[in-house]
Protein 1
Amino acid sequence: MSDAAAPLRPKTVTACVLLIGDEILSGRTRDSNLAYIATHLNRIGVQVREARVIPDVEETIVATLNEVRARYDYVFTTGGIGPTHDDITADAVAKAFGVAITHHPEAVKILGDHYKATGGEFNEARMRMARLPEGASMIDNPLSKAPGFQIGNVFVMAGVPMVMQVMLDSLTGRLEGGATMQSRTVTGQVGEGTIAEKLGQVQARHPDIGIGSYPYYRGKTFGTSIVLRGTDSSALDRAAAEVMALMREFGAEPAMGDPA
Amino acid sequence: MSDAAAPLRPKTVTACVLLIGDEILSGRTRDSNLAYIATHLNRIGVQVREARVIPDVEETIVATLNEVRARYDYVFTTGGIGPTHDDITADAVAKAFGVAITHHPEAVKILGDHYKATGGEFNEARMRMARLPEGASMIDNPLSKAPGFQIGNVFVMAGVPMVMQVMLDSLTGRLEGGATMQSRTVTGQVGEGTIAEKLGQVQARHPDIGIGSYPYYRGKTFGTSIVLRGTDSSALDRAAAEVMALMREFGAEPAMGDPA
């Protein structure tokens, strides 16, 4: 049998997101980067399998990064690449990879031009933002210029959401995705405990689809959203139809989509 | 020298938060539980040092829980304790502790009374929510009745934010806090790169205080919030005064608090 006869089954590409920053762990800042990154990656066939929030502590960043970069296809970090003393991510990443960190000539030029144009002083602290681990390549930052960087399978981005978002856009074409996860959502005014047993049977009939049950409350009404996720759209449609039939069986009038 | 002469230094009590659920990793749900839990715990002297978002996969929950419960004083989990097939947290926690999981008589009674009062069917799926690992104690849920539980240093709570919040309130008096972290925020219209070098010197003079720098953008204005965190309020006030003086040196008119 030739290779060409093997079934075409797109591979699964996985990622871990590391949110680096004391401000998220203290509760001061509510993170919005994870949901944005996960949604963005999902569209290009990269599945986020784990996320961690860790403090601005070098040994923690080094150990965590070395653990997760071995386990997942890609690692995306946010936070800690600014000009101040608490911005230690670039140094920690260099340490994790066992390489030196040096001023990157192109980054120095971009930042120098930026501060010349805006009248800001290109001082030593701002020069720190042009330091990249040896062997890293820049991730463009059209917004505030200070670049992120890629080294190996690790992508280091800013923590400020709008800067992180333009960096993620800059990665277009640099990430290789696999199977794209699609989803269907079925919502109905029925308690999840009411349909639970039969929903488990739907799950058992569709082992390649992940079925999640999410109760919701809207004032005096309540109900359940069932989210089906998988890579085969017609299989998803069949399973979603079974969930709709199941909800009707218990007196609900289900609809596709999230609760209104 | 007697023990009484030793300096009174409150101990540090640490915690890890595990957010369990595919819906957070897919980007469908933006988590709000971490910031709430971190803020709540901070007030009673428990410092969240790490958080992880992990999928509804038993072996992942077991391995992660056993890793972090050994490393931190407390572990708080959210998600996966409902009636449906994807609610596997209680079973995974029992497995992590190497104990059986059984119907807890008091939980069965609470849920039975609840469904009798509301007219819902107390079926087998809903009975699952009364299953607790052996040796666990209930965490009350005045809102929707199905309890969370504590086993060892692990607190297992619901994922629905308002249910999680009443469970956290139910824990009042059961958690032993240590030193309470306090904070001061100083905000001024100055670039963080401008003050970075001297801010590093303020940090060096106050090694017991954590100083974080957070740039912000508001339309055409921008600036920096400096957050100082520590357990000694007068030391915090002194360091905050130095940060205000530093911002004035660079022409800003700083104020205490977040950007307006």
Note: Chain A has two domains: 3-170, 182-256.
Protein 2
Amino acid sequence: MAKDITPRSEDYSQWYNDIVKKADLAEHSAVRGCMVIKPYGYAIWEKMQRILDDMFKETGHMNAYFPLFIPKSYLSKEANHVEGFAKECAVVTHYRLKADKEEGVIVDPEAKLEEELIVRPTSETVIWNTYKNWIKSYRDLPLLVNQWANVVRWEMRTRLFLRTAEFLWQEGHTAHATKQEAVEETEKMLDVYADFAESYMSMPVIKGVKTESERFAGAVDTYCIESLMQDGKALQAGTSHFLGQNFAKAFDVKFLTKENQQELVWGTSWGVSTRLMGALIMAHSDDDGLVLPPKLAPIQVVIVPIYKGEEQLQKIETYISPLKKELKEKGITVKLDDRDTLRPGFKFAEWELKGVPVRIAIGQRDLENQQLEVARRDTKEKQSVSMQNAGEVISKLLDDIQKNIFEKANSFREEKTTEVNSWDEFKEILENKGGFVIAHWDGTVETEEKIKEETKATIRCIPLNNKEESGKCILTGKPSKQRVVFAKAY
Amino acid sequence: MAKDITPRSEDYSQWYNDIVKKADLAEHSAVRGCMVIKPYGYAIWEKMQRILDDMFKETGHMNAYFPLFIPKSYLSKEANHVEGFAKECAVVTHYRLKADKEEGVIVDPEAKLEEELIVRPTSETVIWNTYKNWIKSYRDLPLLVNQWANVVRWEMRTRLFLRTAEFLWQEGHTAHATKQEAVEETEKMLDVYADFAESYMSMPVIKGVKTESERFAGAVDTYCIESLMQDGKALQAGTSHFLGQNFAKAFDVKFLTKENQQELVWGTSWGVSTRLMGALIMAHSDDDGLVLPPKLAPIQVVIVPIYKGEEQLQKIETYISPLKKELKEKGITVKLDDRDTLRPGFKFAEWELKGVPVRIAIGQRDLENQQLEVARRDTKEKQSVSMQNAGEVISKLLDDIQKNIFEKANSFREEKTTEVNSWDEFKEILENKGGFVIAHWDGTVETEEKIKEETKATIRCIPLNNKEESGKCILTGKPSKQRVVFAKAY
């Protein structure tokens, strides 16, 4: 059963594209850099959204919605912010088309906007401009708001899910009375992201802080979670920014303290995007297709009947019906694949390709023996299970798969994490082994830049709760107080 | 307790604005025509979304996501479609800003797009261009897809929720092998909308078909649900379009039939938007604020403790705790308002303003008597309820409120629906009574136009299953086969 998936060993990048395409996750649209998220891919994203949304609400946040467009002058109010985003902005300049004899339809030159509008690349500016009116006194704080939205950053080189001009995300924007509270919020949301990545995506992450050069444009500190893909490259899976009073200053957002003083508000923002879909695919999948953690799989169990003729199919459906009911009652999503135009082998391959965690096959002999064949997607192991305790076995199997793929990714990461102490070793590991390289760095932007130029590796993060350890910078030999995490990255 | 809401009788339009603003539902943003949906307003929209989404999935649809931008040439492919939307398009012409000594940041003239991109006003064109690749044979049909998204139509005169340049909506786009199946889908989704409006929004609607001049640009038939607001004006609450083969033709979408023939695909599209929020507000609210149907209320029951000092509050909290638990187990959302800076009267007024269906007040005497005071928002009636059966009483009360506000809106609509048989009567009713006016029309666009010019009334719809009844057009006296529904409209 040829699935036409390029093996990872042959061409990792093509392997990724094949899975995205053939598992029906997404495709390029006719609009440069914009993707179409197909129903099966979107169903996975919806699961992520629902879980994250519950976690945000659990931690006291409410959703709201702010405009798609940002006046050009707003974007410019925070100097670092505009510098970070100016080069990749979609700009709306007109608000009308009109008929034209030669060209059919043209932009109406008379409908030019007085001030151009930017399609939001992120919403700090338009939100802080709104917060100015919402926040008057300490009673209005903290303000804990999240938004699910589309954003646009005009990328020249795009890859489905990983880097697209338009993407979907959530952006939390909170305002606080004190610096400490804002820092705590920044760290709390990083923890939420890390918990989501590990408990639901089965993807181990390193929590850390970005260096100055990798910081969000406008932030005082950028926290991040970093994960490792199967090709040994790192992927930033989520960021949480401590904004200090930068946006409060830019938009003049002050509050009256209990002591009757006017003070600037402290801010945070944090986001994850459809990029997580790319991370999920690359963290677990294999040469047969997608491997999904059960908690994010739109279909958790697929049942493939093996039969000849309508009568045999009917018998299988009757036979399987109580199990289907039992699984549904356990909150497990089950699909019976009763398409009569396809052979079982084809169906097996298709559901493997789509990453369904558990596949049940039932033939005539299984009916006679009161059993069924249960196959798990992650290890490809099959077992015969008696009908009597099938519900329990499958339920436990889903838990096992969730854990197993985490363990597998975790072992891989451990194996691909290397402490090095010299420049030669650093280069050698990056070149031949890849993965996370843990090394001393002298703390300067210049050294970071030079390392990037020579090796393409960047500092992914300075891990939280990093142990102090004096050493020498691998490049300059200058003194260093701690090791940081280097890697080539997406 | 002044709430500063303008009474409906004084200025209906201002009353509406006051409620939207003071109940914290939405506000104008700094971007012309775009709104900010505030957390409380967004929570209502989320409830609508969740229920509708479940209804769409129940009827076999899956969600997907298509690009925000539409190449100008795509929009032009269906002649009626572009004519309908060209006058209100936000157009992206550039993809970069750059620093400028004088102005700070300007649009980089060198980053001009070869082809302008339109911010989607609706997605038929970009979706049918995608469907071309998804549909090859009858096995790929029907294709039942929905998208939750933001769209932009550059409106000159905007009103919060009712008409904004950017709004949120869902748009279903389906493809079918036969005309009959597509018509059935169009009607099925209209039924879903009508069911949602009546069962969840408690808002009675008329189901009907639009006349040619009110049809969606590119549709063969537009079905709609029409509701009546408290000022006697009609509001179109949802539309479902039978597209025939128009978009299949424009984008060359054909499929191989079972009989091995190439045929054009049949299409539908259907949508409801944040406009429903406007309808919800205007259908039920009163001079004290919002009135929400319990099924859409983010907070269904609010508990206001009446106390002096921490000790009394503690006692009330202990007293009320089992009831809170019981209500939560029944799936009822309860909020305890324990803010200690505000007086009970202020809280009462605030929760009335926000439309919370049931308010519980508990003072020291209630503790002694093992009872509580229960007030319903819709009728303002209060009753003393014994603690013992409070859970049951409240649960039933929520059902009663849901039904009662439907009945009230329904009676209002009946009262405001008038059959007329002459032009003078028609004008008189529109002028003095408003509401739906049921009258004969000769079936021509010219007459429809003339009636609109003279009275501002439009044909809202030709009701489904309309009874045949010969008569004479109220304006021209020409023969007519059926009555249609006229009204002034939002």
Note: Chain A has three domains: 12-284, 299-399, 417-487.
